[in-house]
Each structure stands twice: as C-alpha cells, then as structure tokens.
Amino acid sequence: xxxxxxxxxxxxxxxxxxxxxxxxxxxxxxxxxxxxxxxxxxxxxxxxxxxxxxxxxxxxxxxxxxxxxxxxxxxxxxxxxxxxxxxxxxxxxxxxxxxxxxxxxxxxxxxxxxxxxxxxxxxxxxxxxxxxxxxxxxxxxxxxxxxxxxxxxxxxxxxxxxxxxxxxxxxxxxxxxxxxxxxx
Length: 184
What we know:
The protein is α+β, with helices and mostly antiparallel strands. It has helices spanning about 60, 70-80, 90-105, 105-115, 130-150, 155-165; strands at about 15, 20-35, 35-45, 50-55, 65. It has two domains: about 15-65, Thrombin, subunit H; about 70-165, Methane Monooxygenase Hydroxylase, Chain G, domain 1 (Up-down Bundle), CATH 1.20.58.1290. The chain has a five-stranded antiparallel sheet. Helix 3 (about 90-105) runs antiparallel to helix 4 and helix 4 (about 105-115) crosses helix 5 (about 130-150). Residues about 1-5 and about 170-184 have low confidence and may be disordered.
C-alpha cells in the first residue's frame, strides 16, 4: 500500500470541499468523542452560512483540497472552450454524470459540465434541469476563480462566461425602437 502524503492546512486558508465548494479554514480543534481525541478541521462556507468539521485523518479521503493554481484554473476554463462531448446517453444518465462532476469539486470536471451545457448562441434554450446544473457548475468554478483573482463570485461568473464566449441572456425588459417603415 502506498503511503499518502499528509495534507497540511492552515487557519485562514481557502480550501475546496467537493460537495460544498470553497470554504475557509477557521481552525483545527481537538474534540473528545468517547475515549478518543480527534483533530478536526473546522471549515466555514460563507455563501451557505454553514460550518463543516472534517477529521484531519479523513481530510484527504473526503476530497478536501487546497485551491488550484491560477494556471490550473486557466487550463480548466480553456478545456470548456472545446466542442461539447457526445450526447449519446439519455438525459437522466447524463444529468447524473453532470451531478457527479459538480460534486467532485474538480475544476476540469466542472469545465466539462459547463462546456456541455452552455448556450452557444442567444437563441439557444436550456431545459430547467440543464440550466440548474449549468448554474451550479459555473458557481462552483466561479467560487474558486473569485478567490484566486480576489474578485466577487458574480464578477468571476461573468469573467468565465466572457472567456468562453457564452452569449448574454436576453434582457426581457429591454424595448426595441420601432423601425420606421420606408415611404411607399
């Protein structure tokens, strides 16, 4: 059995917990459960108003990881520029795969979901469930992008979509000026 490297986390460090997204380590505390003392990493997820405690010895197994580098994030976003993957599976199975990819917390897998579900033109429509999956994947990627680039999540989402060339939503409140009909 190969020896796994011990992950070293510090207070105040941003980390990714696969099913929750980006959080910030508040502290590492010792908790007594029964006769055992267990080291716990306490992670705050500001966007969800949630605190999670992960045993230090299970951190790697749970998928807890430090943020990727800006270069790795750029690689993932560029992967989302490629042509969408084959859609040979029925929607229910594809949706399950997309859900797994979102919950993996892996930027490359998030990029696959974004790539496959993004609108290619302003006339493209998305199903309700497809749009929900797309928005969740984009938000997860934007959380990490935002921390890496020290911007807010909304700006990060817009920046990612700009890089990918995703068309903007149609503004339903916009009014068009009537074109004048040519004189007869």
